[in-house]
Write a structure and sequence with these properties.
single chain, 203 residues, alpha+beta, six-stranded mixed β-sheet, 4 helices, 9 strands, 26% helix
Amino acid sequence: MIHISLSFLRLALNNFITLKDPLNMVGALANPVVLSNIVDQENHLFNKTGDFVVMTLVNTEEETVGKSQLPYLKTPDDKLHVQNPDIKLNLYIQFAGFSDTTSGPQSAYERALILLDQVVFFFQYRNVFSKKHYPVLMAAGIEKLIIEPISLTFEQLNHLWATMGAKYLPSVIYKCRMLTFRETVVSPETPLIKELITDEVVN
């Protein structure tokens, strides 16, 4: 589910940026959004050449509001399946502008900022994605994705980039709510207790 959600958002954002063509590439800016770490395990910086938005999952968070604590799933015919409660996750996604290209009047840094603008424009334009309109979400069992911006303090930003092992790049962070994980392997059925019979005599 995590992979499908991130891949879906990457594709949607890719289509938006390519259509708008903010760098006036006239079709040359293909697939500018890349799902990747900023640095690899050897601390080497993202090594593609060109203009990109690097999309990175930086945190996951369990959504506990409304969480059921009952380890059972009731079927329409009044049978119970032993099943742990659903796990609902929120994803924190960072979008960082990256460019090593100087073309026309813009520096590489300016080009990265222009691409980053498009991320903000896109999620302002559309921040809810439901299975009703996107079959790929329906097929994955994802009811809805809701995207909202997140603001970090300078201290939090410093810790985040230090954890990633990279120097700061212009970036924005969004929270994606929420994914519901429910394993479909069903345990043996447990019949409902409808009646208690006892031989104990109450005086």
